[in-house]
Amino acid sequence: MAAEVLSEHGCFGGVQGFYRHDSKEIGLPMRFSVFAPPQARQGPVPVLFYLAGLTCTEETFMIKGGAQRVAAELGIMLVAPDTSPRGAGIPGESDSWDVGVGAGFYLDATQAPWSRYYRMESYVAEELRRLILAEFPADAGRVGIFGHSMGGHGALTLALRHREAYRSVSAFAPIAAPSKCPWGEKAFGSYLGNDREAWLAHDASALMLKAQTPFPQGILVDQGLSDKFLAQQLLPQEFEAACVQARQPLELRRHEGYDHGYYFISTFMEDHLRFHHRILSA
User: Which residues are marked as active site?
Assistant: First the structure.
């Protein structure tokens, strides 16, 4: 195995593992986690990639998401990469929580000094996906993607930009129109430069406006209405309007009393796993 085993733990009849490998795309060691359900002992199973949000790591989802029990029931493998390169040595990379370490935004940076290491789109959609399919019992024809906040942005944009790679997509409280919010403006300005037209290629709402029913079996998005980031940073209404224009079926569920954190995510995790299972098993 090209990936080094950091630890493996029995979990709901399957194995929860944490791994490290030398990434050619990033140019540094990268960590990721995998939950292999018990069904994986008999052969390849559907696989769901989960992209976490700002400040998170490859451990956050596996510890807080509450996904393994249902994934074991449904026979779904779960994969979570880290949220950025670590140890790049870029000046100031740890000075801000929303750009740099823990904030890769799942794109390939084009601006120095970030462009040398911050290649999270190529890493997630290409290198890590190939590694998982080669080294774990994952079915290449049944791959889905979902995520939260910055990772919800990543899930939606990677699904739209790599349509051949993913059969299903969903998100929790995604940054749905990053070119129009402070988080996105700061990150895109750093990673992609000042050309706002270039930003649109990594904006889920802008990408959807150019699409035509890319996911005919639907997209699921959950959003808490007590989320303090909703009005200024997340802008789900932009994605909702784009889906209408693109004739893209979208179930955007708005929930009273839920905020931006993992208590919200874990509440609706089972719905997302069953949503992906329905599509990936079709």
Answer: 149, 227, 260
